[in-house]
Amino acid sequence: MDRQAASNRNTRAVQIGALKVGGGNPVVVQSMCATRTIDIDQTVAQAHQLADAGAGIVRIAMDSDKEIPAIKEIRAQTKGITLSVDLQENYRIADRVAPYVDKIRYNPGHLHHIEKSKTIEQKVKWIVEVARENNLAIRIGVNCGSVAPAFLERYPGDQLGAIVESAAYHCDLMDELGFTRFVVSLKDSEPQKVIDANRRFAERRPDVPIHLGVTEAGLPPDGIIKTRIAFEKLLAQGIGETIRVSLTLPNERKHEEVVVGHKIIDDVRSGRFISVPEFGKGLNIISCPSCSRVENERFVELAQQVKVLSEYAAKYRITIAVMGCRVNGPGETDDADLGLWCGPTTVNLKKKDKKIGFFTYDDVLPRLKIELDKLIALRAAAN
After folding, report:
1. What phi and psi, each to the nearest 5 degrees, are found at residue 83?
2. What is the pLDDT of residue 19?
3. pLDDT for position 88
4. What SS3 state is found at 130?
5. Three-class SS of 145-212
C-alpha cells in the first residue's frame, strides 16, 4: 500500500523544492530538527535521519545572523532534502537565508515585534519579494500562543476567531501581491480547536493547501493520541495537504514523529480510527516538541519528570504546560493552570499568566508539586 494518501480537496498545487503540496498530490509528512542550527554536523545528521524516516520536508529554525553560515553549509550537505526555515521572531534574515532553503515560514503573530515603524503589509510584501527572487514557497504559520495582538483585540474572548481571521487576512495580502506559492497552518494544543479552526479556514479558503499540526502535543503516548484525534477527523474530510506530528522526544528518537505521521495517514486511508472516550477529561500535560529553539537539553528530561511527578493527579482536570524556549514559553503557558518555560539555566514557574518565580532545573519539581497540591485541594473543596 502507498504510504501516503492524497487529499481530495481541490486546492492549488504549491511547489516546494522538488515536491508539490496540494492539488491532489499525496499528503506530505514533515518534521523539524531539534538540534542547534549552529551545530552543523548534528543538524545535517538529523536532517538525514528525518528524511530517511520519510519526511518530505525538513524544517530548521533560525533567528540570528550568526546561524547563516551554518545554514549555508547544512544546505551543501543536504542537497537531496527539501528544507524549510522557520524565521521565528526575526523575519529580517529572510533574504540572507533564502538562497539555501526551499520554503520560509513566518508567524503573523511575530511580525509586530521588530521594525515597528513599518506596517504588517510592508513586512509581508518584503517577505514575498524575497520568496519570488529565490524561487521559494511560504508557510503562513498561525499559532494559538502567539496570535497577532491586533486580531486578539478585534475578536475579544474568541481566540479561535482571531486565529482564523489572522490566517485569512494574510492570505488576502498574498492575493493582493499576486503570490500563490503559499500554504497555511492554524495550530493549537487542543485537538478540538485544531479541528474547528481548520474546518473554518478550509471552508473560507478552499484553494489554499493546509499544513496540519497539533502544537505542543507532548510526550508519547498522549501526544500521539491528541494528534490522531485532530488529524483523523480532518484528513478523513480531505482537509490537510501536509502534516507535522509535534512530540516531545530526545534527539535520537526525533524521527518517530515522521513514523507516526505516516501511520496516521495509512490508518485514515484504510478506515482505521481510534476511540478514546475518556481522553482529555483529566490531567492534561502539554509540552512543545524539542527543536533547535530549546536552550537547555534538560527540557525533554524535565517534561518526562513532570509527567511522572503528576501521575497522582490523573483524575483532576488540570493542565500543566512545559515549554522549552523563550519563543513559545511566555505566551503558551498563560492558559495553563501551571506552566514551566525553560531557559538556559532556570525554569520560570507560572500559575496561568502570573509568575511564581525562577527555579533551577533541580529545584523546580518540588515547588511544582507544592503548587499542584494546592490546586488539587482547591478542586476537591469546590466539589
Report:
1. -110, 135
2. 96
3. 78
4. helix
5. HHCCHHHHHHCCCCHHHHHHHHHHHHHHHHHHCCCCCEEEEEEECCHHHHHHHHHHHHHHCCCCCEEE
Name residues of the chain where pLDDT drops below 50. Answer: 1-4
**d(Cα 353, Cα 323) in Å, to the nearest integer?**
14
Q: What is the pLDDT of residues 179-212, one digit of tens each?
A: 999 999 999 999 999 999 999 999 999 999 999 9
Asked whether the beta carbons of 250 and 24 are under 8 A apart, the reply is no
User: Of 86, 188, 91, whose CA–CA distance to 145 is shortest?
Assistant: 188
Report residue 129 CA to chain centroid gap. Answer: 25
- pLDDT at position 380 is 81
Torsion sign across C-alpha atoms 328, 196, 375, 300: negative
Which residue, chain included where needed, has cell 553560515? 69
Q: Is 320 helix (H, G, I), strand (E, B) or coil?
A: strand
Domains (ranges, CATH) in the chain?
14-270 (3.20.20.20), 284-382 (3.30.413.10)
Distances (CA, A) of 253 to 1, 41, 242, 332: 25, 17, 21, 24
pLDDT confidence of residue 8: 63
φ/ψ bin of 161: left (φ > 0), alpha (ψ from -120 to 50), beta (otherwise): alpha
The predicted pLDDT at position 335 comes to 82
Which of helix, strand or coil describes residue 231? helix
CA atoms within 13 A on the CB side of 324: 30
Of 67, 56, 29, the closest CA to residue 264 belongs to 29
The pLDDT, as a whole number, for residue 63 is 82
Q: Give this prediction's pTM.
A: 0.89
Which distant-in-sequence residues (6+ apart) come within 8 Å of 230 by Cβ? 191, 192, 194, 195, 212, 214
The pLDDT of residue 3: 41
CB 181 within 8 A of CB 136: yes
